[in-house]
Structures are given as C-alpha cells and as structure tokens.
Design brief:
Blueprint: H1 19-32, H2 35-39, E1 53-56, E2 59-62, H3 79-88, H4 103-106, H5 111-123, H6 147-154, H7 168-180, H8 184-187, E3 205-207, E4 210-212, H9 228-237, E5 239-240, E6 243-244, H10 247-255, H11 262-272, H12 295-300, H13 308-321, H14 346-354, E7 356-358, E8 361-363, H15 378-392, H16 401-408, H17 415-419, H18 422-451
Helix pairs in contact: 1-5, 7-11, 9-11, 13-15, 15-16
Length: 452
Amino acid sequence: MSLILFTGITSAAVQPSGDQDLIAKGKYLALAADCGACHTSPQQGAPMAGGYAIHSPLGDIYASNITPSTRYGIGEYSEVEFARAVREGIDKQGRHLYPAMPYTAYNKISDEDIHALYHYFMHGVAPVDRAAPQTHLPFPFSIRASMLVWNWLFAENQRFVPQPDKSPEINRGDYLVNALAHCDTCHTPRNFLLAQDNDRAFSGSSLGSWYAPNITPDAQSGIGSWSHDELARYLKTGHIAKAQAAGPMAEAVEHGLAHLSDGDIQAITAWLRQVPAVNSGTGRARDSYGQASDAEQRLRGQSGQSDAGWQVFSGSCANCHQAQGQGNDRYPSLFHNTATGAPQPDNLVSAILFGVRRDDIAMPAFGPDAEFTNRLSDRQIADVSNYVLKNFGNPAVVVTPERVKQLREGGDTPLLVKLTRPAALLGLLLVVVLIVAGLVLRRRNRRQHAAH
C-alpha cells in the first residue's frame, strides 16, 4: 500500500481517481487509525459493529456501532457530523463521547483524510443492524455534559501542520504517530484529571492491567538502545527477540500497524527516534537483564526444595519457554526481555493472567479466562513472577499477591476516581459542613465579644 497524501506533505502515492480508490484510501486510513481494534468485538463480532468493552479507570466503555446502519450505526451521519464525531467527540445527537475514543488525537486529521474515511465507512463497510451495548459509568462520570469543561481544558481541535524545517518523512511520521495511530494517548502519562501530561510525552503510562512503556530515545528508560530495524520490525510484526507485543499493543499491531506500508513504518520509526528523550529514573535498559539459568534443573533434583515459584514454572512455563528460559522458535526468551527487565512487573503479570492472543501466537491465560486446569491463584502468579524475575529478569522487582489481584481487577484506581466514590464524597461533604459550622461559630463568637 502506498503512502497516503495529505496537505503539505509530498509522497509518491497517486491521488485516487474514483470511488474505489477513495474507498481503498479510507480503508487504509482506518487501519492506520486502529478503528477495528476497538469497534470490532474480538468474540467474532462483525467488522465495525461495536460491542467491545474498553476497560477504563472510570469503568467499561463500550465501542459503538460505526457501520452505515441507519438504525444502530452512523448511516444517517452527514460528512460534517462524521467529522465532528471523529475530531471533537460529539455525536449526531449532540452527546459527548468519552476520550476512550481518541478524538484528542484525531482532531489533527486533515480534511482530505476525513473525506476518505467517511467515504470508506459509508460505502466500504457492510451495515450491521445490531445495537452495541450502552455505556453506563458511575456518577459523576455518567454526566456526559461534564466533557464540555474537560474538552475546553485539554482538547485543542487543531489540524496537523507540517513543520517546514523537518523532512517529509519526519512530518509523515509525526502525523501518523500523533494523529492517526494516536500513539501518544497510550504512551504519555496522565495528570489528575486524566488528561495527557505532554511535558513527559511518550515516557510511559499505565493502561489498567497493562503498562505502555517509555518509547522515547532514552538509552536506559526508553528505546534508545533499539536499532532502527528492530523498532521497524517490532511495529510491523509485534515480535523481536527482546520484546513481544501483548495486550493493547498486540491489538494495535494486529489491527493497524501490521497493515501499514513499509514507508509509513519507516516514517513512524524516524519520528520516534528524534523526539526528546525522557529518563524515568532507570539506570539500565529493560532488555539488558538476565541470563540463562539452571535453577529449574537444580531445584528439580532437591527433594526438600520449597520454592513455590519453581513448582509453577516447572509445571506451567518450562515446557514452552524452556527450563533455562532461553525460549524457542515460537516462545520468547525470558532473559534480555523487556517484560522481565522492566521496572514495573505489570506486563509480565498481565501476560500470565490474560495470555497473549494473536494470529500467530497463542500463550494461554492462567487467570480468569483460563481453562479450569490451568487457572492459577494470585499467590501462585506472584510466586512464578518472582521466580522468573529472580532467575531471568530484574531481581529488584518484587510481585505481591495483592498486586496480582489489582491487575486482575483492572489495575490502579486513579485519585480522581477514588475522590468520587460515595465514602469520599460523604467525607468531603462532612469536611465542608465542619468548615461552614466553624465559620458560623467564629462569627457568632465575634458578635458576642463585640456586644460585651
């Protein structure tokens, strides 16, 4: 697939000459924007018919039906209404969408590309007359009108403008990363109000049970030690010796990045390698930890060994990843691996909990979705994680059963969400009442003192 043209950026691509070309361009853009990852249910759902539950800190947000169904989809949308939904997060009925739909990035999409996307969704996607589940978030997040203030604070709604001092390839990469592929929405940390902290752009962020790592060119905390070819191959396939895509990144690869042209992959790679490097406080690259270990064979020969992590590893992991952790043609090495060398264990634990499901990879889950005979407790997952970290990865990282339980249930709860819970609201109301009562008493005492 050739590069797609947009205002201000040159390319060798040929401008579409008819409807089929415009549909093909729109399809390519939809792949680059990763629309199918969220709007197509992984349980054999029809393309773009919605129903996929996006697990957010606020609760589950269900992706809508964006097929041209006139009853349940976007079949009645005009191009202006479609553009408003994509760029501003406001649907045809005037309701605000939640920013799980990354309109904060899509607002940079050019008019030409919006036109192609609209044409593709209206003429290249089959209509599906089925309603997607409704999103019901707890109060106060259920009040969609509150997004007016959030959007005013954090959504710029400005089109992408190429930088004249940058090459066409760098500008193309900028457009792909920050508009269509919206990489920043996952890899940039969030502030108290769950908006992007762009002062630390691409330095890593929690995604519920998973963690989107630092992808700045810092040699220790980021991907500065990766070669250009390694990064390009990872984006295209989701698999290199030191890193394997899982969770949301696996979806991004499978539904989007894997379908991009080599030129676009090279543009993304070139742009990422020139962003400001951010060191997150780590002193070693994630893939520099560990080595092969004979612990599994050594402990197997000891009748009185009591390493609970060894027991789980030997029974559930060694057959695929090999006893010494070196992996094989299908399963990766556990040492010199970014998941086992990371300063946070979230991706290691989540891979064990939820498995890795991709077209060419099938690591089984050992958590809530596992077959009964494979299911492991929080304690067992903590034990085997610590065994792997101690023998193959970053030994300074320790996993507790409590942390496994948190990740099983969706990860850390942001402070904003904690403050909106009933107990917190009641406590805040009590504080306000006490302050008001104190002010009233103080004013009364002053009046009595003045009267004397």
